[in-house]
Write a structure and sequence with these properties.
The complex is a heterodimer of chains A (about 750) and B (about 230).
Chain A: H1 3-24, E1 27-28, H2 41-49, E2 59-63, H3 68-79, E3 84-88, H4 101-105, H5 117-132, H6 137-145, H7 150-157, E4 166-167, E5 170-177, H8 184-200, E6 207-209, H9 211-245, H10 248-272, E7 276-277, H11 278-287, H12 293-300, H13 309-323, H14 332-356, E8 377-379, H15 382-397, H16 413-426, E9 433-439, H17 442-461, E10 467-469, H18 478-493, H19 500-508, H20 517-529, H21 535-539, H22 545-551, E11 552-555, E12 558-566, H23 571-577, E13 584-588, H24 589-623, H25 626-651, H26 656-676, H27 683-707, H28 713-735, E14 737-739
Parallel strand pairs in A: 1-7
Antiparallel strand pairs in A: 2-5, 2-6, 3-5, 4-5, 8-14, 9-12, 9-13, 10-12, 11-12
Helix pairs in contact in A: 1-10, 1-14, 2-24, 5-19, 8-9, 9-10, 9-27, 10-12, 10-14, 11-14, 12-14, 12-27, 13-14, 13-24, 13-26, 15-25, 18-20, 24-25, 24-26, 25-26, 25-28, 26-27, 26-28, 27-28
Chain B: H1 2-6, H2 16-46, E1 56-63, E2 71-79, E3 85-91, E4 95-100, E5 103-108, H3 119-124, E6 127-132, H4 138-151, H5 155-160, E7 161-171, E8 174-183, H6 186-191, E9 194-200, E10 203-210, E11 216-222
Antiparallel strand pairs in B: 1-2, 1-11, 2-3, 3-4, 4-5, 5-6, 7-8, 8-9, 9-10, 10-11
The chains are: A alpha+beta (about 750), B alpha+beta (about 230).
């Protein structure tokens, strides 16, 4: 079978596997599955919350130079969008029909009943003022049936923003999406609809803020950049390989094993896991970059195709052993990454072997190394000793890692500052600081939350805190509901709205005798049924479900109820106030996420070191040549140091993304070292080996060198790291050897 | 000529051309008089003086189906320099209503009552609610009318209401007058039975809005210069 036919066959098989996988694969975005085991309660809370938050971040719309009427018009149009759950500001709900049914029916459980004539008078005075401002009969009906306005108050206290939706000529609107937090596709659709609506109303200059907006923009930019750079890389690589092989069919054949490896990686991951994490796929494709070299080596050795395979097998074997450490990485996402990379590399190696087996039709490579290496070479240790020593100085002077992932965001600093200011003005949920009340059952968690709320009320009065929001106003503990039920029964036993205390207060304020009869009748009916307000009532309601999910979550260990703290003026004083409440912890989610990233980075760094060690052991066991094994590992370490130093210099430190790029550098460096330390007897073979390593290095350098110019910091970082590492590895392994004297 | 002089007048039939002109004139007059009255009423409202930042005491009475008798609230009303109408209710419960364009901002202190010098602080630390002012319904319509009349911006009122003016007796402040506004839109007429404004000279003294016999509200402005008792 000719090379062309084998290539076609391989591509058909790869396309079939990829097609079948695409029909079945489910890609996940739950970051928690990629993170290491949380080591403290703050991290635990963060991991538990990730991926479970029911709603995506709001879209903040800023309308410059807009009247309130114009803003209201835009808001009305936005409310008609199917992907918008709510649009704020909303008209104040003062009609019973507009209040969610479970809240309206069980409103008597949401607030304490006043005790005594004075307390009722205070309540009724406020209702008298409300009745003055009632704009409809429905509003009067609401007052008559709910003189405490318990239903309205509970909803108001859960409002996601304070009602200040304007500043000078600017008007703000909040669009709360129906999409889940990580559903970027749906979020992108919503943003498209929002932008079209704004343009239709003449607000082409409206600005949109919110993490969902940035995610969608970033995804679009990443796609554009990835498309651009992959196109440029494909063209450059094709030209390079065409120049090298001088045969288009061979160029296509050189790409086929990589595609087969990718298809196999996808297929195996899809078979093994119900859901494959997007990061595992992205990093898996990065690690699979090593496989590009396999067909290049095999196809470049025309004189004796079989001669290259012992070295190639050694390279494949040691890389597989190295990458297998990800299987024991300790997180499901890392296991998926290992499975993808291992199956992909193995498939690519097997595909290369099948493709080049006795094909004999490979074109003659053009690159020829001027001087063939000697039959036996000595390996100079000094180049990598120098490089490692030079790299050790900056690595030792300041930490090598970049823990502030915000530094990698391509969102302009001005936009982030405007975003923060907007959230401050609107009093939007500050998601950074939360008091987490953790208990084995929901009732205890709600009781703890009520205790937290009571203490935080004092903190607000003392000026230590601006506001706090929890589920308590909407979902009191059963114990508190029971107390309120008792209050209702006592109230009714005293005569209800016909008791002397109530009648005196109402009469003094000119209320009619039967004005609050609807309230009394509802209380009588409610007192008979004693129907508690449960979390199911809220979760089954379309408008309340996401609000509930934001504050209360069930974990494997029990329940967590979150109280969001905003405008903390004195964090220590707030923490002191909550001291002594067992199961309550104030958590800085930003700090927790930072420490989680540190742990993730540490884990990846340890895994990489373990991988390198495993590869070294494998090399020694397979070759029984300690000197060569040490030399190989030294070169890889030196190449990694060079790439890491450049990353630190250019970006201030290494992120987890850079570490994955370094894993690829290690694989490629090992490959170059193995082939450069090969000592073929045949000068042609030696020449072809040198040419193959050079074309491998050039291919990687061109692809990742182009990526280094990306405007997206993460992509640019990967490009810079790999291009530098590849260059260093090639130069060190190429010039770190010399002909052994006397041979 | 002779023939005309000798003819008995009774025997003469009506002059069709004369009758026609008289009818047209009468019809024109009948149409013009209300129009003139309407215009005079709007001019009267446009000429009202309500100096900005001048605080005027008011008594508000209202009746609705929850009340057995009209309830009274006392407070101060003023128009700020940037065109916001502020009604600060002192009794029975401290409350501030700010009418800002199409927005009603309602501020209430946590404590029920506060001394005059503590009112600002009490309101600042209390709760604030913002409602969209519904110019087509109930109490909100009243507030919108107050803002429009005080600020002299009658454009919306002129679009939605016909007016008639009644002249009353002279008083110390000038000629007393009463203006009635009648909604043009049948839908609005369902919300409002009558809107009456009374005043003297260039002063507005009284607003009355009725949605039916048991659903009305009125605001009486008490000007010290007129001898009204100031309410604190």
């Amino acid at each position: 079978m000719t090379l062309g036919r084998r290539t076609a066959g391989l591509l058909i098989v790869a396309a079939t596997i990829a097609g079948a996988t695409a029909l079945d694969i489910s890609v996940g975005y739950d970051l928690a599955s990629f993170l290491p085991e949380p080591t403290d309660p703050a991290q635990r809370l963060l991991v538990e919350r990730l991926g479970r938050v029911s709603g995506a971040d709001a879209v903040y719309v800023v309308l410059p130079e807009a009247s309130e009427t114009a803003a209201d018009g835009v808001a009305a149009d936005l409310r008609a969008l199917p992907l918008a759950r709510r649009v704020l500001p909303e008209a104040e709900v003062l009609e019973p029909d507009l209040i969610p049914l479970p809240i309206w029916r069980k409103r008597l459980l949401l607030q304490d009943l006043p005790a005594g004539e004075d307390a009722w008078r205070a309540v009724l005075e406020a209702r008298l003022a409300d009745s003055t401002l009632a704009e409809s009969d429905s509003a009067l009906e609401l007052i008559a049936a709910d003189p405490l306005l318990a239903s309205v108050s509970a909803l108001e206290r859960m409002a996601p923003a304070r009602q200040t939706f304007g500043n000078g000529d600017r008007r703000y609107l909040l669009v709360l999406p129906a999409a889940a937090m990580f559903d970027i596709g749906t979020h992108a659709e919503l943003l498209g609809d929002v932008r079209r609506t704004l343009a239709g109303r003449g607000f082409d200059d409206a600005r949109l803020y919110g993490s969902g907006v940035y995610s969608v923009d970033l995804q679009a930019r990443t796609r554009r950049e990835a498309k651009l750079f992959s196109s440029l890389a494909a063209v450059a690589l094709a030209l390079l390989l065409l120049w090298h092989f001088r045969a288009p069919a061979t160029v296509v054949a050189a790409g086929a094993p990589m595609l087969a490896g990718a298809a196999a990686g996808l297929g195996v991951s899809s078979l093994l896991y119900e859901q494959v994490h997007s990061i595992a796929l992205a990093f898996g494709f990065t690690l699979l970059g090593v496989a590009v070299d396999y067909p290049l080596h095999a196809l470049s050795h025309r004189s004796n195709p079989g001669a290259v395979w012992p070295t190639l097998r050694l390279g494949v074997g040691s890389t597989l052993i190295a990458y297998s450490v990800f299987l024991v990485g300790g997180a499901p996402g890392l296991q998926q990454l290992g499975a993808f990379a291992l199956s992909g590399l193995a498939a690519a190696a097997l595909a290369t072997a099948w493709l080049t087996a006795r094909s004999g039709s490979a074109a003659s490579p053009t690159i020829a190394i001027g001087s063939a290496p000697a039959r036996d070479t000595a390996l100079r240790p000094w180049p990598w000793v120098v490089v490692v020593a030079a790299a050790a100085i900056p690595l030792a002077t300041h930490g090598p890692f970049l823990d502030d992932l915000d530094a990698l965001t391509p969102v302009p600093k001005e936009t982030l500052a405007a975003d923060a200011e907007l959230r401050r003005q609107l009093g939007a949920h500050d998601m950074r600081h939360v008091a987490a009340s953790r208990a084995p059952d929901l009732e205890d968690a709600l009781l703890l939350t009520e205790a937290v709320s009571a203490r935080l009320d004092d903190a607000v009065l003392a000026g230590e805190l601006e506001a706090h929001r929890s589920i308590s106003p909407l979902l009191p503990s059963r114990s508190r509901q029971s107390q309120r039920m008792d209050q209702v029964r006592r109230f009714l036993a005293d005569g209800g709205v016909y008791s002397s205390a109530f009648v005196h207060a109402a009469d003094e304020l000119s209320f009619a005798e039967d004005a609050f009869r609807p309230f009394h009748e509802d209380a009588v009916g409610f007192g008979r049924t004693a129907d508690w307000l449960s979390i199911d009532d809220l979760q089954d309601h379309p408008e309340l479900a996401s609000l509930t999910g934001l504050h209360v979550l069930e974990t494997t260990d029990g329940w967590i109820s979150l109280t969001f703290l905003s405008g903390i003026a004195d964090a220590d004083a707030v923490a002191d106030r909550l001291d002594g409440l067992d199961g309550v912890q104030v958590v800085d989610l930003v700090e927790a996420s930072r420490t989680l990233v540190v742990d993730l980075r540490n884990r990846i760094a340890v895994l990489l070191a373990a991988a390198l060690f495993a590869a070294g052991c494998a090399l020694w066991l397979l070759t029984r040549d300690l000197r060569r094994s040490v030399w190989l590992l030294g070169n890889v370490a030196a190449a990694l140091s060079a790439a890491a130093c450049l990353g630190m210099w250019l970006r201030g430190g290494l992120s987890p993304f850079d570490l994955m790029a370094l894993a690829l550098v290690a694989g490629l460096g090992l490959d170059y070292g193995l082939f450069h330390s090969r000592t073929p007897a045949d000068p042609t073979d030696a020449r072809e080996t040198g040419a193959a390593v050079l074309i491998c290095a050039l291919s990687s350098f061109v692809v990742f060198g182009l990526l280094a110019f990306s405007r997206i910091p993460v992509l640019a970082g990967i490009g810079q790291t790999v291009a530098t590492g590849v260059t260093a590895a090639y130069l060190l392994t190429r010039f770190g050897r010399y002909p052994k004297p006397g041979t | 000529m002779r023939q005309r002089r000798n003819s008995p007048p009774a025997a003469r039939g009506p002059d069709p051309s004369r009758f026609g002109w008289a009818s047209v004139a009468a019809l024109a007059l009948s149409a013009a008089l209300p129009a003139a009255a309407d215009e005079a009423a709007w001019k009267r409202l446009a000429d009202l003086e309500f100096p900005r930042e001048e605080r005027v005491a008011f008594v508000e009475r209202h009746l609705n189906r929850l009340l057995r008798a009209p309830a009274e609230q006392h407070g101060e009303l003023w128009l700020t320099s940037d065109g916001v109408a502020v009604m600060r209710v002192h009794t029975p419960r401290l409350e501030e209503r700010r009418i800002e364009g199409d927005r009603l901002v309602l501020r209430r202190p946590h404590q029920r009552r506060a001394e005059a010098e503590e009112q600002e602080a009490a309101l600042a630390s209390g709760t604030e609610r913002r409602r969209r002012l519904n110019r087509g319904r109930g109490a909100h319509l009243m507030l919108a009318i107050i803002l429009d009349v005080l600020s002299g911006d009658l454009s919306e009122l002129r679009q939605r209401f016909d007016s008639s003016s009644t002249s009353l007796d002279d008083s110390a402040e000038g000629h007393d007058w009463e203006i009635e506004l009648v909604p043009r839109d049948p839908g609005l007429r369902g919300e409002l039975v009558a809107v009456r404004l009374r005043g003297a000279g260039q002063r507005l003294g009284f607003l009355y809005l009725s949605r039916g016999t048991r659903n009305w509200r009125e605001i009486r402005l008490l000007f010290p210069s007129r001898g009204d008792e100031r309410i604190d």
